[in-house]
Design goal:
By secondary structure, the protein is an alpha+beta fold. The strands form five sheets. Strands 3, 6, 8, 9, 10, 11, 13 and 14 form an eight-stranded antiparallel sheet that branches. A three-stranded antiparallel sheet has the order 2-1-17. It has a two-stranded antiparallel ribbon with strand order 4-5. The chain has helices at about 1-25, 35-50, 60-70, 80-90, 95-100, 105-115, 280-290, 315-330; strands spanning about 120-125, 130-135, 145-150, 155, 160-165, 165-170, 175-180, 185-190, 195-200, 205-210, 230, 235-240, 255-265, 275-280, 295-300, 305, 310. Helix 2 packs parallel to helix 4, helix 2 crosses helix 7 and helix 3 crosses helix 4 (about 80-90). The radius of gyration is 22 Å and the shape is globular. Strand 8 (about 185-190) and strand 9 form a beta hairpin. About 30% of the residues lie in helices and about 25% in strands. The protein contains eight helices and 17 strands.
Length: about 325
């Protein structure tokens, strides 16, 4: 009995120490992403226009400066505010470090906005040529109609009353769903809330993309499996209305639509449970509309596939590292 009591005391002490260590961890616990489409477009254009020049402006850094200025409230956004910041940096009047030295919350906004946007602009290869620019894609294939509105946080009641932590895009059944960013398939299969769904992790581990309510019977792109690497712009599935059922392959959603969600991960403890961080995507989807993936149909299989292939260096690097790990494990 005494031994059991001592053991319990040790376990309690260990649990207390673990909880204490957890509270000491310094990572972001919450993010509200209210950057407007207009601000993203302007910052992205500066990034694009200055690429390869002496003063290359990073669009996330520009947006983070405005985030610090506005306290994250982009209803205050003015184009001239961004122009003023860009001019100071391009002329070399101040370095980024000097410009942000007095901005207490700039580091927070740089990390928070970076968690959302870091994988979306960069160098890649398309049609055999090197390209720099927007390499993330809109989640709906080019030429397919859809409608949406800002529905983040609205009430949902299936199972229990909760807030909607994604962005719904109403479209026709069978509309091709596109991988927004390159990554690897972390989840694939049935979820009683999301129906047939795909979950894709970004290679840096900070973003988890959630595509849900996919088509009954044939929800996914042919051959897609858990663990697969996908490139931004790939067809990964098809719009449907599955979900709201513990039984698989059931259409219990009233309207055909894609539920598109983005979860941010600053620490592995945030991946599941009460500490999850999901962000509003309405403005980001508007921004990505300028870059839609063109697709074609294979009449023999009735599958849709992208027209133009790309080579994303981050995907190639991830596959190489995975191959090396497997080789080392076998050795």
């Amino acid at each position: 009995m005494e031994e059991e009591e001592n053991s319990a005391g040790v376990n309690q002490a260990e649990n207390t120490r673990e909880e204490s260590e957890e509270t000491k961890k310094d990572y972001i616990k919450w993010v509200e992403f209210h950057v407007t489409c207009e601000a993203m477009k302007k910052a992205y254009q500066y990034d694009l226009d200055t690429y390869g020049k002496d003063q290359h402006l990073n669009w996330v850094e520009l947006l983070a400066i405005l985030g610090a200025k506005y306290g994250g409230d982009f209803s205050r956004y003015k184009e001239e505010d961004l122009d003023d910041v860009a001019e100071v940096l391009m002329k070399g009047e101040k370095t980024l470090k000097e410009l942000t030295a007095g901005m207490e919350y700039y580091p927070y906004y740089r990390e928070a906005y970076g968690a959302v946007l870091n994988g979306m602009v960069g160098a890649y290869e398309a049609a055999g040529r090197k390209v720099y620019g927007l390499k993330a894609f809109h989640p709906i294939a080019k030429g397919f109609p859809y409608r949406d509105y800002d529905d983040f946080g609205v009430s949902r009641t299936y199972g229990y009353r909760r807030n909607h932590l994604g962005h719904d895009m109403m479209g026709q059944v069978g509309t091709p769903v596109i991988a927004v960013e390159s990554g690897y398939v972390a989840e694939l299969g049935w979820n009683q809330y999301g129906g047939w769904r795909v979950g894709i992790n970004s290679f840096d581990g900070q973003r988890y993309y959630y595509y849900a309510h996919l088509r009954q019977d044939r929800p996914y792109a042919e051959g897609l499996e858990k663990g697969d690497v996908v490139q931004a712009g790939d067809v990964i599935g098809y719009i449907g209305r599955t979900g709201y059922s513990k039984e698989e392959n059931v259409n219990n959603i009233d309207e055909y639509h894609l539920h598109f969600g983005l979860q941010l991960i600053f620490d592995e403890s945030q991946r599941d449970g009460n500490n999850e961080i999901w962000v509003s995507l309405y403005e980001l989807v508007r921004f990505l509309y300028q870059h839609q993936s063109e697709v074609k149909r294979d009449d023999s299989t009735k599958e849709w596939m992208r027209v133009e292939e790309i080579k994303d260096p981050s995907a190639l690097q991830y596959e190489k590292e995975n191959k090396d790990r497997r080789k080392n494990n076998q050795g």
